[in-house]
Amino acid sequence: MDQMIGNSKKSVRTKKVKDTLIIKLDREKPDLEKLGICAEVIRKGGLVCFPTETVYGLGASAFDPLAVKKIFEAKGRPADNPLIVHIDDGEKLNLVCSGGGEQRKRIKLLAEEFWPGPLTMIADRDPAVPDEVSCGLPTVGIRMPDNRIARELIRLSGVPIAAPSANLSGKPSPSAAEHVIADLFGRVDVIIDGGDCDVGVESTVLDITGKVPAILRPGAVTLEDVVRVLGKGELPDWKKAPAKGERPRSPGMKYTHYSPDAEVRLYDGEDVAAVRGRIAKDAEKLAESGKKVGILTTDEGIGSYDQERFTVISAGSRSDLLTVAHSLYGALRDFDRAGTDVVLAEAYPQNGVGNAVMNRLYRAAGGCVINAGAEKN
Ligand code: TXA
Ligand code: MG
Known about the structure:
Rossmann fold, alpha/beta, five-stranded parallel sheet, 11 helices, 377 residues, DHBP synthase, single chain, binds threonylcarbamoyladenylate, ten-stranded mixed sheet, binds magnesium ion
């Protein structure tokens, strides 16, 4: 059966090839018998989507190259974008990581503070992890998720689980089971519905192999957190494209990610009131030209826009950007559901979790940033 995914210009026609089982589980007290069935699917080389505290993952046994290949097919993922390996304990860490010395010290310090949690460490890869997982890189991304369903699934499977976010490649990551079902039903064996994800954006990816630990993808664990624990760290400018011929340190970051079907424009500026004024003006103009306009704002800004004329969504509060991270991807998907052509989004200060939010918005906008104030923030 053919299935249309998305509802406008970027829609792709795809083949529904599998009967997908949807299993609902309580994330505080998951039914271990049902999870046992999911673990059996993993052990036999199948694909299981599962919740984590960041976003849902599309998992397969990290030690089964054929199963790992199926992940790339199901998502339509570029072949050079490596996967994160998910573990539930130190034993599995030792199976996938061969790094010693300084690397081990860093892993221990970071794990004590942030695992289980939204931090992926890029470390030396043990040869037991097949090339398919890391796309031939000598390193591997490792994470211990802070979600009982995820950890019990890994434990019962008896193997580390390789898993990217459980969305079609290029779509916003799934922060709720309904997002996974919309993208991957018919393409995977099992989708576990374990409710909404707490964090809502993907983990911080931290390369610990170099002299200075470097954040390759900002997330809920911030640069300040890393520096506090390790004494040093850096967040290279993620807006800067790698020089010609230079291999990006994190291959995933070179792709336009997280985009809804609608075009996204990001409005930046020091004066939030000026930003809102400019968005309201541009929204009018776009609506006059026949476009269906969406506006992504916060609780503080929602009163500034005409909610009768435009689809206005608050992602959370400016005073706590974790709330914005939590709702961001759901909001982007809601705009598509409302049939929006253009989304005008407010920017956020780039510090702490603001880095994670801005990184995702910047990519959703394909780098289209409009300076709406005298100075950029
Ligand atoms: O929160 C998360 O990280 C979620 C959940 C499911 O754990 N996973 C996730 O996976 O976001 P994915 O595949 O969507 O993003 C993984 C990112 C990509 O940007 C990839 O390029 C990078 O991590 N990555 C993975 N292994 C790497 C490696 N060995 N070296 C550099 N970057 C790596
Ligand atoms: Mg992803």
